[in-house]
Amino acid sequence: MKPLSWFFLALFLLAADAQAWSLFSGSEKEERFPGMGGDFTLRSANGPVSLKDFRGKLVLIYFGYTSCPDVCPTSLGALASALKKLSDEEMAQIQPLFISVDPDRDDVNKLRDYARYFHPKMIGVTGDLPYLEDLAKRYGAFFRKVPVEDSSIGYAVDHSSTIYVVDRDGRLVDMIQHGGSPRRILEHIRTALQD
């Protein structure tokens, strides 16, 4: 074989090897939760809010409702404590969202006040029930109405308790389960900020 042919053969093999490496090395970020998450548009006191409005920021999403007696206040309180430990520079990169799964009782003004109680930057949003059911399913969340006899509230809402972490590109990248301490939540947030 002529030296020039060897050169082109070596060049071809090198290019093929580089292509194979790019295919199998995971040069693109690997999706942690394939098929889960995704964009949405919900109502807030200041108008429609879409997940895509926050591209470039880390979005922390919690599904709950304002009449929740213990789980929501506990989780949102822990999240708020973690957020207070962030620097101003870190906090500028974060958007917390509280999604109410009780649209019959949680109007947008009530949601605004409830969310702000936990953190001034948190936005309270909701939507129509079928839309919320589909959205919760896409994120792996769960909720259902449960009648409460002999009570003025009429019903409670059983729901999962997870903080969903969505990266700057709108991808679900982490789930922080209920019961996480503020320190643990802070670790998850800072890890996501570094990715």
Describe the structure.
The chain has 195 residues and is an alpha/beta fold. The protein has helices at 3-24, 71-84, 88-91, 108-118, 129-139, 182-194; strands at 41-44, 47-50, 58-64, 94-100, 123-125, 143-147, 155-159, 162-166, 172-177. The longest helix is centred in the first third of the chain and has 22 residues, at 3-24. The radius of gyration is 22 Å and the shape is globular.
Please mark out the parts with pLDDT under 50 across 5 or more consecutive residues, or reply none: 3-27
- Strand and helix order: HEEEHHEHEHEEEEH
- Determine the N-to-C terminus distance: 49 Å
Shape: globular
Percentage of residues in helical conformation? 25-40%
Beta-strand proportion: 15-25%
Strand order of the largest sheet: 5-4-3-8-9
**Main β sheet profile:** 5 strands, mixed
Average pLDDT, all residues? 87
What's the total helix number? 6
Radius of gyration: 22 Å
User: In terms of structural class, how would the helical and strand content be classed?
Assistant: alpha/beta
Identify the quaternary structure here.
Answer: single chain
What's the number of extended β-strand segments? 9
Descriptive keywords:
9 strands; alpha/beta; five-stranded mixed beta sheet; globular; 6 helices; 195 residues; two-stranded antiparallel sheet; disordered N terminus
How would you summarize the topology of this molecule?
Blueprint: H1 3-24, E1 41-44, E2 47-50, E3 58-64, H2 71-84, H3 88-91, E4 94-100, H4 108-118, E5 123-125, H5 129-139, E6 143-147, E7 155-159, E8 162-166, E9 172-177, H6 182-194
Parallel strand pairs: 3-4, 4-5
Antiparallel strand pairs: 1-2, 3-8, 6-7, 8-9
